[in-house]
Amino acid sequence: MIAQLTARPVRAGLSALVLAVLVAGWLRNPLRTDMAAVLDGPSAQHPLGTDELGRDVLARLAHGAPLTLGAAGAALLLSVLIGVFVGGLTGRSGGRIAVLVRGLIDVAVALPPVLVAIIAGLIGGPGRITLVFALVSVGWLPFARQVDAQVAAVRGEPWVRAHEALGASPVRVLRVSVLPAVLPAVGALAVVRLPALINTVAALGFLGLGPPPPSPEWGAMLAESVDHLETAPWLLLAPLLAVLAVQTLLAGTGRTDHRPT
Questions:
Q1: What percent of the chain has pLDDT over 90?
Q2: Residue 69 domain boundaries
Q3: Which has fewest Cβ within 10 Å: 37, 151, 180, 205?
């Protein structure tokens, strides 16, 4: 309890700090170059310093947030929708087809998303759509497996059988009786997986599979910082700390307080 009470103001302060940084950065131009201020350290004019082209790191960090977080959010939403649809069908219907789909899911869930993204990048070229597609191609599998197990567990419950006895169609039974009991757990899984998705998006951007330059995507910023680690360490620290801050905030949001009843 004491740890939770202590963590709340910490997360609140971190949230305020992240919001202030983003707002301040949005007021600046992330593409404006200044060759007289190349690799300048943090100062009043450039609070997070400048990069190798004299661009303001704070501006690039703020304008890159929608690219990184947006790609992770879009991939998560599509993964949830596909996973709920497939898992709902297999868990509700059963039979040989459901067994086959479950076997394919169990095999495919072991595929690392980075490897899938690299293959997708080689086929479709780097870009935001390729990045999201790569994440969704494996991201829906855990949701499908979870929904399938939960739907199979609740389909024999009395309220489900009551709806079936009243003549409700299988689709209506699934939508009205089954999914409302399943979706809270799906939401919890989504919150847990979002920080990892953000980390994966940044990693793929670092590998050059995200939006191409001069995009200020956080992973691309990390890649650009490699050549200046000794002379300009702030180029690495700014996007790295941004990713860690967002992950910390989301991890705090995803915690639940389990109390005995």
A1: 22
A2: 2-254
A3: 180
